[in-house]
Each structure stands twice: as C-alpha cells, then as structure tokens.
C-alpha cells in the first residue's frame, strides 16, 4: 500500500508542472483501463485524495490506452495528465515522445523513496538513466 501511495504522490505532483501553478483548483485527468470493480476502487481512492487535497480535482477516465489513442487525445487537446501503462508498451510510448521524465518530481518529494520499489520494476520504466514511469503492480 505504501508503494501505491508513493505512486499516487508522484503522479499527482505532475499536476503542478503539466497543469501549471494556476490560482484556484488544479484539474488532473487520470486514465486507466480497468474492470468496473477496480474502477470503483480507484474512484474511491480519488475521492479520498481530493478530500485531503481540496485544491486538486481529479477526473477519472476508464478507457483503453495505447500509443495511438494517446496521440489522438493529444491531437485533440484531451491527453490525460497521468495514465497507467504496461511495461511492454513503454518503448513505443518513449519513441513517440508521450512520456515526461519523473526524476525531478521524485527528487523534490521527501515522501518518495525509490528504495521502497523493486529495482527491476524501476528499470522497466527507465530509459538512458532517466525515470519515466513508476511500477504499481510489483
């Protein structure tokens, strides 16, 4: 559970860079492709997060994610700020420039300790020494 919390902290901290430090409420779009049961759990976790962080609004989209879909969303100005992917799609997404380096976010957050995550999981989301994703199912 601590790893899940760390993942949420890192991913949601992207709001302040990708969305800017706007006055008022920051809106974050989070996309994952899950079953209805898992979607219900994720919606409950999002509600808890928003209660603890009233300046952040999270919109959850339960939708299939692929490089092609992300490119379509990006072209339409609807790309999610945070999305879940499998490690086997990492290289394709890197090749299309659809991922943001996370090293700065990790370094700036005292609550995040990458030592809590299996190194093999981190390696799957690292390219040329730069971290682009956080494993959540290790």
How much strand?
5-15%
Give the low-pLDDT segments.
3-22
Biggest β-sheet, characterized? 3 strands, parallel
**What is the molecular shape?**
globular
Structural class: alpha/beta
Total helix count?
7
N→C terminal distance:
11 Å
- Return the average pLDDT rounded to an integer: 85
Short description:
This protein is of the alpha/beta class and 138 residues long.
What can you tell me about this protein's structure?
- The protein contains seven helices and five strands; from the N terminus they run ααβαβαβαααββ.
- It is α/β, with parallel strands linked by helices and 138 residues long.
- Strands 2-1-3 form a three-stranded parallel β-sheet, covered by helices on one side.
- The chain is globular.
Note the topology.
Blueprint: H1 2-13, H2 15-18, E1 26-32, H3 36-52, E2 56-62, H4 67-75, E3 82-83, H5 90-95, H6 103-108, H7 119-124, E4 126-127, E5 130-131
Parallel strand pairs: 1-2, 1-3
Antiparallel strand pairs: 4-5
List its salient traits.
138 residues, alpha/beta, 3-stranded parallel beta sheet, 7 helices, 43% helix, disordered N terminus
């Amino acid at each position: 559970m601590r790893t899940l919390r760390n993942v949420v902290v890192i991913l949601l901290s992207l709001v302040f860079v990708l969305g800017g430090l706007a006055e008022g409420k920051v809106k974050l779009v989070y996309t994952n492709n899950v079953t209805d049961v898992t979607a219900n759990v994720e919606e409950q976790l999002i509600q808890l997060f928003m209660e603890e962080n009233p300046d952040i609004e999270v919109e959850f989209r339960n939708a299939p994610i692929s490089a092609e879909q992300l490119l379509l969303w990006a072209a339409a100005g609807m790309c999610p700020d945070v999305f879940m992917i499998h490690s086997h799609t990492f290289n394709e997404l890197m090749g299309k420039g659809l991922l943001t380096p996370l090293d700065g976010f990790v370094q700036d957050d005292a609550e995040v300790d990458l030592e809590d995550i299996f190194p093999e999981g981190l390696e799957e989301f690292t390219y040329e020494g730069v971290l682009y994703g956080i494993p959540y199912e290790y």
